[in-house]
Amino acid sequence: MSTPTPETPAAPAKTWAVVELFGKERVAGAISEHEFGGEKFTRIDVPEVTVVDRVDGHVSRRTIQAHTKLFGGKAIFSICLVDEATALTGAHVHRHLPLRVWDLKRQLVQMPLHERRALLAIEAPALPEGSAAAEGHGGA
């Protein structure tokens, strides 16, 4: 690592926070301001965390990848500026996911039977030959 000089200024120190969103969701990580499409957003860089889940006596470990989320000012209830250790602990506790996993099976089971049958009767359009999805190697 080199010493900062006037030609190579030091990178600004990160600001860490736990952000509370309306809807009772919390996100922890490095916070900054980000402009996109002419609007200003609060940017949260959530660090990668490894969590341990215990269900019915079974223990499993999983990693939630590092990710970045942008929030508009009206989505934020409060911002608590903290040190890095507190933000990293918060990231482990809150387990914010980069994208909410949508559980199709659970949604289908909860759907009224007549609606589920109608939905499952819909035919998907044919996929181009040679595509990964058509070969059974792709998908969501």
Task: Show the helix and strand layout.
Blueprint: E1 15-21, E2 25-36, E3 39-46, E4 49-55, E5 58-64, E6 67-71, E7 76-82, H1 84-94, H2 104-110, H3 113-121
Antiparallel strand pairs: 1-2, 1-7, 2-3, 3-6, 4-5
Specify the number of helices: 3
| Broad structural category | alpha+beta
Q: What is the helix content?
A: 10-25%
> How would a textbook summarize the main sheet?
5 strands, antiparallel
Distance, first to last CA? 41 Å
What is the average of the pLDDT values? 81
Describe this protein with a few key phrases.
two-stranded antiparallel sheet; 140 residues; 7 strands; five-stranded antiparallel β-sheet; alpha+beta
Question: How would you describe what is shown here?
Answer:
- The chain is of the alpha+beta class and 140 residues long.
- The protein has one domain.
- It is built from 3 helices and 7 strands; from the N terminus they run E-E-E-E-E-E-E-H-H-H.
- It has a 5-stranded antiparallel β-sheet. A two-stranded antiparallel ribbon has the order 4-5.
- A hairpin with a 2-residue loop joins strand 2 (25-36) and strand 3.
- 11% of the residues are buried.
